[in-house]
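Severity: low
Component: inverse-folding endpoint
Summary: output formatting inconsistent between runs
Steps to reproduce: submit the following structure tokens with default settings.
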């Protein structure tokens, strides 16, 4: 039998191990197993002083088992039938005789494994019980099981039933079965960059002889991940240039009329980005462009001018928004900006006017019929909507431009469904108000051209942000006084909470109680406390994700009209809500929000002629990482700088997001922050590869990796 990376583990390992690897980690083949890399390495010389451990500290200690005692006990679980359980207490000691207790629950087999006299490494978090330090269910690596060279012990992500040492044994078996592996990376690139061969890199990352050997292995495997990913993106970008799209000339009657009415000058950035988009829409190949614009930078205006260019020459534009609140906001603001240019077909409207239609899931049957008819006949040149635009029966006369707002909130199928409603591949403009670090844009949106709007339109004022300690009543009284002062001056405010209320969970809830922490503050509770407390006498409104669509729309319209003084809301207002008269915001439990989320939230204020104020209320103490995040948000309004900081503090998988699970399965070592140089260099190499050999016929092994990511595991990349 020929054994290779595609060989199923059941053919080479024992049944029990194979089942556990499959169930716990989704590992099915030798390739899967060898691609399950260690997440850390322990040097045999690491021997911290057992007498100087700190509670909460993650430690690795080298010690000897002195005793192991199993004790029966009865867990106290209210409302559940009493049952007996077992706790194993293992006493270990270092070479100076200092001891530490390890505690394992309901793992009786460990008593036969951790016997007196055995030495090993024990890895876990220091806790305390009855005044005594201990490690709860730590990982352990006995010397007799190491079978490693060079003093570096690999530690693998595992489970209680599949600990690291068992994975290590399986990996070592697999390595012995595939000593000679074909290298998928193009030989010329590998040689020029001085990279290890694939087989050697796998051996070194699983059994490193030194830190230097480990570094060389990681570099080689990172390069493979980066080059495969960038080649997928470059190839897709190249393929899109071969598609035929309808060209729409620059300018046009309705666009010229709109520009002539603008009461202000476009910023230099809006002019530049607008010109780039206009030129691409005028070409016979579909545009694929990502428009990044920090909060308040005027993205909607840029997108509207692109839509009008298409409408001016007989096409239609669709704007897909993730929520009804945002879709309604876009519809109102675009209709207001166009004025009578949005009244096409009505008496007295300019000849070049069109209609702006809104279609959401909450539309009545009559409203839906009217909008569908306007879309089908082409009377509606601009169509704004939510997922309702994707439904069967919504047919366009001539869809020429698709604008997707907050791209990361949509799945692949949804975007493709809308694009499929066009007779020819439409031009695509993806907008996001969430600043994206350059390496993330290259990795997640690398098949799109990228534009950035970084300057604020004239008249916008900076937003002052301060952190307010929740436990200091003097500061809290002053915070509520500032909101009252803004309202008394004729302006409006927001109060943002992380949770809706009661025991239900909703999309705009942010977590729950964590250990001894109290539950997050909820809008349904806070609004009543404010009504009878610090904001008594003011008109308060409530907005959250569980309200029906009509109520959400009523509240937003009332707030926009100035009928509500203070809007108490969840993150449903995070993007797109535009009320220029709103100048102040209090974010409660601010530490429960992410950096980029806080930046988006505060972008709801200071959108008019008056300065904005954002107060981040938190009970976390100074010196903690959570407080440092809040201080960082307070220190700058530069969204791109905050996005880089956000990337530093978050896991790579969180940044790529659940929608990009295909990339996460392929990108295991590459860091979007730390490996920017590799990502950029891989982009250049990928471009040269595709230019020379578009189908990669000269590199079949590498082409197979690219095809794998581009198909079943990389659907998220399909934007065209």
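Observed output (run 2 of 3):
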């Amino acid at each position: 039998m020929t054994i290779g990376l595609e060989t199923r583990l059941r053919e080479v390992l024992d049944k029990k191990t194979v089942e556990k690897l499959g169930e716990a980690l989704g590992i099915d083949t030798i390739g899967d197993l060898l691609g399950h890399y260690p997440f850390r390495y322990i040097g045999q010389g690491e021997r911290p002083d057992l007498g100087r451990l700190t509670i909460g500290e993650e430690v690795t200690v080298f010690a000897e088992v002195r005793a192991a005692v199993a004790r029966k006990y009865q867990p106290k679980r209210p409302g559940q039938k009493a049952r007996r359980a077992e706790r194993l207490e293992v006493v270990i000691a270092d070479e100076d005789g200092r001891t530490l207790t390890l505690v394992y629950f309901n793992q009786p087999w460990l008593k036969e494994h951790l016997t007196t006299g055995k030495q090993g490494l024990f890895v876990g978090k220091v806790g305390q019980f009855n005044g005594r330090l201990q490690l709860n269910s730590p990982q352990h690596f006995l010397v007799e099981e190491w079978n490693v060279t060079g003093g570096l012990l690999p530690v693998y992500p595992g489970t209680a039933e599949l600990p690291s040492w068992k994975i290590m044994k399986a990996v070592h078996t697999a390595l012995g079965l595939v000593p000679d592996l074909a290298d998928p990376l193009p030989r010329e690139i590998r040689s020029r960059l001085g990279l290890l061969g694939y087989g050697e890199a796998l051996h070194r990352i699983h059994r490193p002889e030194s830190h230097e050997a480990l570094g060389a292995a990681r570099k080689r495997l990172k390069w493979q991940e980066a080059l495969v990913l960038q080649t997928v993106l470059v190839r897709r970008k190249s393929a899109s240039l071969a598609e035929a799209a309808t060209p729409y000339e620059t300018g046009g009657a309705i666009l010229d009329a709109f520009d002539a009415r603008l009461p202000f000058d476009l910023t230099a950035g809006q002019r530049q980005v607008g010109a780039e988009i206009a030129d691409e829409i005028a070409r016979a190949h579909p545009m694929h462009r990502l428009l990044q614009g920090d909060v308040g930078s005027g993205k909607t205006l840029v997108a509207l001018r692109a839509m009008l260019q298409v409408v001016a020459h007989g096409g239609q534009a669709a704007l897909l928004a993730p929520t009804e609140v945002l879709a309604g906001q876009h519809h109102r603001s675009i209709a207001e900006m166009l004025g009578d240019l949005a009244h096409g077909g009505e008496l007295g409207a300019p000849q070049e006017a069109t209609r702006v239609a809104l279609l959401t899931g909450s539309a009545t049957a009559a409203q839906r019929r009217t909008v569908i008819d306007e879309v089908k006949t082409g009377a509606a040149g601009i169509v704004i909507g939510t997922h309702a635009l994707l439904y069967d029966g919504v047919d366009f006369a001539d869809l020429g431009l698709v604008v997707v707002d907050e791209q990361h909130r949509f799945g692949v199928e949804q975007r493709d469904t809308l694009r499929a409603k066009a007779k020819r591949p439409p031009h695509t403009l993806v907008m996001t108000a969430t600043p994206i670090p350059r390496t993330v844009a290259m990795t997640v949106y690398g098949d799109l051209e990228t534009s950035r709007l970084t300057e604020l339109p004239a008249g916008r004022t900076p937003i002052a942000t301060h952190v307010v300690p929740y436990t200091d009543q003097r500061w809290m009284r002053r915070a509520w006084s500032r909101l009252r002062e803004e309202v008394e001056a004729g302006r409006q405010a927001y109060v943002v909470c992380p949770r809706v209320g009661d025991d239900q969970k909703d999309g705009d809830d942010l977590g729950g109680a964590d250990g001894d922490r109290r539950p997050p503050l909820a809008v349904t509770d806070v609004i009543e406390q404010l009504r009878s407390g610090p904001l008594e006498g003011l008109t308060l409104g409530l907005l959250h994700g569980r309200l029906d669509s009509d109520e959400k729309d009523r509240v937003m319209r009332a707030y926009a009209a100035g009928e509500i003084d203070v809007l108490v809301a969840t993150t449903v207002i995070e993007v797109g809500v535009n009320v220029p008269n709103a100048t102040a915001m209090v974010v409660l439990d601010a530490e429960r929000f992410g950096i980029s989320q806080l930046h988006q939230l505060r972008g709801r204020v200071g959108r008019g002629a008056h300065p904005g104020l954002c107060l981040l209320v938190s009970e976390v103490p100074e010196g903690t990482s959570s407080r440092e995040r809040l201080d960082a948000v307070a220190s700058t309004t530069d969204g791109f700088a905050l996005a880089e900081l956000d990337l530093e503090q978050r896991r790579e998988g969180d940044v790529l997001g659940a929608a990009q699970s295909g990339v996460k399965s392929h990108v295991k070592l590459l860091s979007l922050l730390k490996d920017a140089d590799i990502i950029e260099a891989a982009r250049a190499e990928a471009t040269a590869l595709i230019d020379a050999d578009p189908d990669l016929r000269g590199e079949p092994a590498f082409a197979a990796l690219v095809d794998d990511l581009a198909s079943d595991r990389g659907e998220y990349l399909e934007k065209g």
